[in-house]
Design brief:
Length: 410
């Protein structure tokens, strides 16, 4: 069964289909798609190149702007960004920008194109803590301008939630490996199995490097007090990590209860089904109309046969894995018995693990510099839980600010 979990579930475009899709594009002058990408990618430009059969030019447009272009092509919630504003929606349906970008980056990979140029070393050193999308992008943008960058990562492999969160059927780790290889080839050093705060102190980094970027994400899954110390309970991000790490070679029990209705919950329930779990019940606090999960992922979960119950809140957990719920509005109760309970009720930051005392206000809402220090923030830790493409944007922004701070490029 784990085969299904390992296969990319969305099929990519063939050369003929990608040209057909590109030919639907209206080549709008004001290109709303291009103004609604958080990372500043210009779909109108790469679609135009594709229409002229200039796939190489299209690949340059994607890659120069977004060092994680092949990843974003797969996981970006395009319906919320570029495709939301697409003028073609008024005629039939938006252009499949994500799938077009995927075709272009697959082409780039097949041709082993080497697009990003790296300048001569400028003698300045920057440390980045965390190798998720924000840390990787910041590192690449600085390396491009000749900075010597070292990323410190607590896990055995780099990538953050790209590697250990987003399931294999949506983002295969071989794609993550390829994107990271590109960044390493730009001269970025990645020190793995090194937790800043324990294995090395942040103060040492601040002395050794001209600037330090904290990009540690929201790496802790949240726990609800009533489930604490219950051996049948696991946090969603911990379960997803185990699954991806073992390439889906994990045992799934007969009955699994998932609590939560966001995208992370949808990843859990769909993974469970693809791994062969017969009964997956997802109980969600929100009503269907208020669900936080993307429509695409919700429909995918439903197609897999997940039972989704909306509007209930857990109130007690009894012996034998029986969880009692109450309806939010009407006087109704629900009891679900499960062999395993997976909590997908959000993630939280953990700056304490860095060994620094930071006031809330010091984590600048814009994810840049802690006042009067050489310490910067990027990614979810600076902005709250966002998306991969926001991590890319924030990585670019922080790299720009570090360059300004160190007196480099204006
Ligand atoms: C299950 C799941 C599915 C998701 N699906 C999508 C999706 O489909 N599309 C989308 O756009 N977004 C998705 N997201 C959100 C997206 O993954 C995050 O917004 C993004 O990864 C945040 O990037 P980041 O670089 O800030 O942090 P992270 O990706 O969390 O990376 C932080 C890194 O810092 C490391 N770290 C933490 N503390 C230390 C320390 N003390 N020392 C050294 N290293 C440390 C961590 O190990 C980690 O590698 C998903 C998130 C989850 C959890
Ligand atoms: S908004 Fe849609 S139709 Fe217009 S240029 Fe962008 S992809 Fe093409």
């Amino acid at each position: 069964m784990s085969e299904k979990y390992r296969e990319e579930y969305e099929v990519g475009f063939s050369p003929r289909l990608v040209m057909e899709e590109a030919s639907r594009c209206l080549l709008c002058l004001d290109a709303p798609c291009s103004s609604s990408c958080p990372a500043g990618t210009d779909p109108a430009k790469f679609i135009r190149s594709l229409r002229f059969k200039n796939v190489k030019g299209a690949a340059e447009t994607v890659r120069i702007n977004n060092i994680l272009g092949a990843i974003c092509a797969r996981v970006c919630p395009t319906e919320r960004y570029c495709q939301a504003g697409c003028s073609r929606s008024g005629i039939d349906k938006p252009i499949e920008i994500g799938l077009i970008q995927r075709y272009i980056t697959d082409f780039e990979d097949a041709l082993k194109m080497d697009i990003v140029e790296v300048k001569e070393p400028n003698g300045k050193k920057v440390a980045v803590i965390g190798s998720g999308p924000a840390g990787l992008t910041a590192a690449a943008k600085l390396a491009e301008d000749g900075y010597q960058v070292t990323i410190y990562e607590k896990e055995a492999k780099a990538g953050g939630y790209l590697r250990y969160g987003i399931p294999e059927y949506r983002l295969p780790n071989q794609i993550v490996d390829k994107e990271i290889k590109r960044i390493v080839e730009m001269g970025v050093d990645i020190v793995l199995n090194t937790k800043v705060g324990e294995d090395i102190k942040i103060e040492e980094l601040r002395k050794e490097y001209d600037a330090v970027i904290i990009a540690v994400g929201y790496s802790e899954g949240k726990m609800l007090p009533m489930f604490e110390n219950n051996r049948k309970v696991i946090k969603a991000v911990d379960w997803l990590k185990k699954c991806k790490d073992k390439k889906g070679n994990v045992k799934v029990p007969e009955n699994v209860l998932v609590v939560g209705g966001g995208d992370v919950a949808m990843d859990v329930v769909t993974s469970l089904k693809l791994l062969g779990c017969p009964h997956v019940t997802d109980v969600v606090y929100e009503q269907f109309s208020e669900f936080k999960a993307s429509k695409k992922e919700l429909e995918n979960a439903q197609e897999q046969g997940v039972t989704i119950i909306d509007g209930y809140v857990p109130v007690a957990v009894a012996r034998g894995g029986i969880v009692k719920f109450k309806h939010r509005v009407i006087p109704a109760e629900l009891k679900v018995k499960a062999d395993l309970i997976i909590l997908a009720v959000g993630q939280s930051p953990n700056v304490e693990n860095l060994g620094v005392e930071l006031e809330k206000g010091e984590i600048n809402a814009k994810g840049v510099r802690v006042p009067d220090t050489n310490v910067f923030f990027a990614g979810d830790i600076g902005h709250g839980e966002k998306t991969v493409v926001w991590g890319v944007r924030s990585g670019k922004e922080v790299a720009f600010e570090v360059k300004r701070f160190l007196g480099g490029k204006k």
